[in-house]
Amino acid sequence: MMWDLLVTGFWVTVAVLDYSTGGWRTVAVDTDASEPLVLLMSLCFSVPLLWRRRRPVTVLALMAPVSVLNIWTGAVVQSAFLQLIPAYTIALRLPLRTLFGSALLLCLPAAAGALLVPGTAGRQLVSYLWGIAFVALLAIAVRTRREYTEALVERAHRLERERDQQAQLAAAAERTRIAREMHDIIGHNLSVITGLADGGAYAAARNPERAGQALEAIGTTSRQALTDLRRVLGVLREPAPGAELAPQPSLSDLDSLLAGVRDAGLHVRLTTHGSPPPVPASPGRQLAVYRVVQESLTNTLKHAGPEATAEVTLTYTPTGLEVRTTDTGGVPHGPRPDNPGGGRGIGGMRERASLYDGTLESGPLPAGGWQTRLRLPLKDAPP
Predict the structure, then answer these.
(1) Of 249, 287, 289, 332, which sits 20 to 30 A from 323 (CA to CA)?
(2) Is residue 303 part of a domain?
(3) Burial group, residue 234, by CB count within 10 angstroms (0-12, 13-18, 19+)
(4) Residue 367 belongs to what H/E stretch?
């Protein structure tokens, strides 16, 4: 509002000075026109500018009859060209069809005055036509530039929002991966330690040597679990210079995994069918197989009972590999079944399989026991 007052005050001052100094007579057709009327017309062209931004069409409509009177009296005050200011606002902010109507409001009074007062057509009508053309082109140029700038700003904001969303999705995916790794590492090693501790407590009274072996195996398993956890959690902080790095588990580590499970008291054997492909499976696929076998044997240690046995069957085909982990335990009544509240193990295994377009089936066998079967393609599917 303050800016509108300043602009209006400036043009009112110019219009009054044009009247008081007699400048209007230099272009007037009739220099004997009534001076009070000249002052009134000058104010009618300048004062309505106060509302030019809020009601530009109304302001221009109010100036139109004054424009007819201006030409008809022959005074032809120069403040009549202030009509171009609301015309500029119309061209800048309103639809183009409104601009065409505004051009008629400017030109029709001049045309009517030319008919009433011969000799003014060439000067007034042409001046209005050139004036409206100039302010229209200027306003359209400014409007186009403004819209282009706003579109660039909106695009930058949209890209920034998309970047933040991508970062959030990446962070969520990484948290899920870390949670899955920690679940597999901690769950498996704690199950092994529990089995070793139970066996050591049972053997302590009868065979102290076996109890010592169990304690030694507990220590080895605990240290391995801590090493794995440090590796997984190391991604949450900046890598320290000279930090110890180790590769992720692969198919070649299945033997050591099964050895640790046997130490915990579970009899398990590994059977391989077919020949490995000339080009080994990707490290991610090998890790998925390792973790699925690890989780399956962990569930066996937890739920299958002390007399259960397990078998891991690894089958290579020309296009993929299949891993079956079978145990002889009964169907448990705990988190092992695949239900919404049954823990994260089976869900985590399915997530690992889906990362490589694989499938996972897990459930009880008709004759008793439990089987988990993983199928993975050796290559990614074409996009």
Answers:
(1) 332
(2) yes
(3) middle
(4) none
In the chain, which residues have pLDDT < 70?
A: 113-125, 185, 187-189, 195-196, 198-207, 210-211, 213-214, 228-247, 330-344, 381-383
Exposure on the CB side of residue 33, measured as CA atoms within 13 A = 25
122 CB neighbour count, 10 Å cutoff:
9
Contact criterion met (CB below 8 Å) for 329 and 344:
no
- Would residue 357 be called left, alpha or beta, if left means φ above 0 and alpha means ψ between -120 and 50 degrees? left
139 plus 273 within the same structural domain: no
CA distances from residue 98 to 56, 93, 118, 221 in whole angstroms, order as listed? 10, 10, 30, 82
DSSP state letters, 127-195: HHHHHHHHHHHHHHHHHHHHHHHHHHHHHHHHHHHHHHHHHHHHHHHHHHHHHHHHHHHHHHHHHHHHH
**What pTM did the predictor assign?**
0.48
Residues 256 and 247: their CA atoms lie apart, in Å, by 15
Q: How many CB atoms lie within 10 A of CB 219?
A: 12
Residue 294 tokens read as 């690890």
Of 111, 133, 155, which closes a domain? 155
